[in-house]
Design brief:
The protein has 612 residues and is an alpha+beta fold. Helix content is 48%, strand content 16%. It contains 20 helices and 16 strands. Helix 4 runs antiparallel to helix 5, helix 4 runs parallel beside helix 9 and helix 16 packs across helix 17. The chain starts with a strand and ends in an 18-residue tail after the last helix.
Length: 612
């Protein structure tokens, strides 16, 4: 079977991508080399720390070597071993710079093994791995990952802690040569002094103090050099959506934006994009912890999707990133799996309400109807408008309120968040606001504004929920009130369908609570309920179900099962649930002043609900 890719006939599974993903050399050789590199690094470290790690068999050669070469070689072996351990992960990911560094370090480690331990086996291990690296140098061509200066500080902390721990082992590895009985505090002080090249309080007999001093100095120098390198090396640019990219994406959305409710979220300006050769389709992505995350379906003409997907996979191959797609539709999952050989797993369901079928009447809507009427009796009013119909002053007030009402210090959202409110380019977006005039309204920074929800366009006749925020002092049920108001106002705005929150593992929660559910399903549901304490899994499902939506399944696309934990962790980082960025105490206030139209907003599922 073949498909048309940008007007040309090609295989349904491009041979180049299949070779990248399935080829044994592409996977096995770097993994083997990386494991061997870590093993040799451990041998080098052991050789530097324990001089009798292996008995010498070349005493004759050792007798003619200078006496000071032994301690220096021990430090050299230790430093090379630590560096090889650091490079092992890069080699497994096909990184070109890791290959170059390993080709330089392996001969140095072999010389240190020969001079200090006189170990022929240790030398052979290093030389065999060097030959393997040279023979398969074409497999190590991946470009660097995006970088930040924060990695220099992280390296200093981690390397510093590791150097102190390894230094304590070095100081304690010669019990028969220690002068006196130094305690742990003396040994720790000796390590700290030694990392800076200064003699510490612990004394040794028989020249061991030179070996320990050189080894500690090598660890300190290694920590300093790697930190300085990371701090001053040129940064590989992080993908950003340029003005031209955004214009091209908007043109594609004008033609094909009605197909996917997540299409407009591709316009987040912290994403990168790859276009098909014809420019008729595109895939937007972000790289997090070595995972190349795409969200939703490709943008544009379905017939051109394979070309954009192939470009995406080529980019992942060039940097040795792990490809993954979060939240694609069933059609999108079928195309991704067919064109790349990847696998798909159902992630959850999207709640979609058809405006023509929505009504507050009936027993099923009783709770929502009563809640809305009670809030309206308390004096709340709602307004639903396009962004272009709001004044600049009111937009600024809404942006400030949304920033200050955020429930967490960390900005959240990626796959289902736009990252801004009130941008002039998003004039078709819809904002619903709740207002209540009371005695304290005049003194409030936001007047009578009590709650906000923000929708982005979904083609010409739909909208997709992006943001929910409310004043903590407002009555419970603000989100329900505004969603009902938006649905009731949709016909006047020409809206026929509304996408609400995404509910992860919705089918498992729904089936697990039914009569006759099996024990495995009940245990799985119990685990999801337990995790809901932190991730709002069950609460989002129940909140969405109030509006009697139809459920559209969404999928995660991945290469193999062992990548799923890594993809999940990267997705949590992208969504803001795990934050590894450096602390910035005044980030929110400075961002509000510097970029009033670019507030990063949480994923549309992150809302603050109270029990009615």
């Amino acid at each position: 079977m073949s498909v048309t890719v940008d007007g040309d006939k090609s295989e349904s599974v491009p041979s180049r991508i299949r070779r990248v993903l399935r080829g044994p050399r592409a996977e096995k050789v770097p993994a083997l080399v990386g494991t061997a590199c870590a093993f040799i690094g451990l041998i080098d470290i052991a050789a530097g720390v324990f001089p009798r790690f292996r008995a010498s068999r070349m005493h004759a050669l050792a007798e003619v070597l200078p006496g000071t070469l032994g301690p220096l070689s021990a430090a050299l072996s230790l430093g090379v071993g630590v560096l090889l351990l650091l490079l092992a992960h890069g080699l497994k990911r096909h990184k070109r710079r890791a290959w170059r560094a390993a080709v330089i370090l392996l001969p140095v480690g072999a010389v240190a093994q020969f001079v200090y331990r006189h170990s022929v086996i240790g030398v052979l291990f290093s030389l065999v791995l060097l030959a393997l690296l040279l023979a398969h140098r074409g497999e190590f061509a991946a470009l660097p990952d995006p970088r930040s200066r924060w990695k220099a500080l992280a390296n200093f902390v981690l390397m510093g802690a590791g150097s102190i721990a390894l230094g304590l082992v070095i100081v304690s590895a010669h019990p028969g040569r220690v002068v006196g009985s130094p305690g742990l505090s003396d040994r720790l002080e000796h390590v700290l002094y030694g990392l800076f090249g200064v003699e510490g309080p612990v004394g040794y007999r028989g020249g061991v103090d030179w070996t320990v001093g050189y080894s500690l100095g090598a660890l300190g120098l290694l920590t300093a050099i790697t930190t300085i390198y990371l701090a001053f090396r040129p940064e590989h640019p992080v993908a950003r959506l340029t003005g031209d990219d955004e214009a091209r994406l908007r043109a594609l959305l004008d033609k094909h934006g009605g197909r996917d409710s997540l299409g407009h979220f591709a316009l987040r300006r912290d994403k990168g994009v790859v276009f098909s050769p014809s420019g008729k389709a595109a895939v937007c992505y972000r790289v997090v912890s070595g995972v190349m995350l795409a969200s939703g379906d490709p943008i544009g003409d379905v017939e051109a999707w394979p070309g954009a997907i192939e470009r995406f996979m080529d980019e992942a191959k060039a940097h040795s990133w792990t490809p993954a797609v979060m939240g694609c539709s069933e059609t999108g999952g079928e195309v991704w799996t067919r064109e790349t050989g990847l696998d798909a797993l159902e992630l959850g369901d999207e709640a979609v309400v058809d405006v023509a079928d929505f009504s507050l009447t009936g027993r099923a809507m009783r709770n929502v109807r009563q809640m809305v009427k009670r809030i309206e009796r308390n004096g709340y009013q709602t307004r639903v408008r396009r962004v272009r119909d709001l004044s600049d002053g009111e937009l600024e007030r809404i942006r400030r309120a949304a920033a200050d009402w955020r429930g967490t210090d960390t900005e959240r959202g990626f796959s289902m968040a736009l990252g801004r409110i009130g941008d002039p380019a998003d004039g078709d977006a819809v904002i619903a606001t709740a207002h209540k005039a009371d005695d304290d309204s005049d003194g409030s920074a936001y007047g009578d504004l009590k709650a906000i929800i923000h929708f982005v366009p979904w083609g010409t006749d739909g909208m997709s929920l992006e943001l929910m925020r409310r004043d903590r002092s407002a009555d419970p049920g603000m989100n329900e009130l505004l969603i009902v108001a938006a649905l009731q106002a949709s016909p006047k705005l020409g809206i026929e369908r509304v996408s609400l929150n995404f509910a992860m593992f919705r089918s498992a929660l729904a089936r697990g609570e039914k009569l006759g559910a099996g024990p495995v399903l009940r245990v799985w549901r119990g685990l999801l309920v337990f995790l809901s304490r932190w991730f709002q899994i069950e609460s989002l499902y129940k909140f969405n179900a109030k509006f009697q939506p139809r459920w559209e399944p969404r999928f995660v696309v991945y290469r193999n099962a062992r990548d799923l934990p890594r993809i999940g962790f990267a997705a949590m980082q992208a969504e803001g649930f795990v934050n590894l960025a450096p602390p910035r105490p005044f980030r929110r206030r400075s961002a509000a002043k510097a970029r009033p139209c670019a507030h990063i907003t949480p994923a549309r599922g992150e809302h603050e609900m109270r029990a009615a």
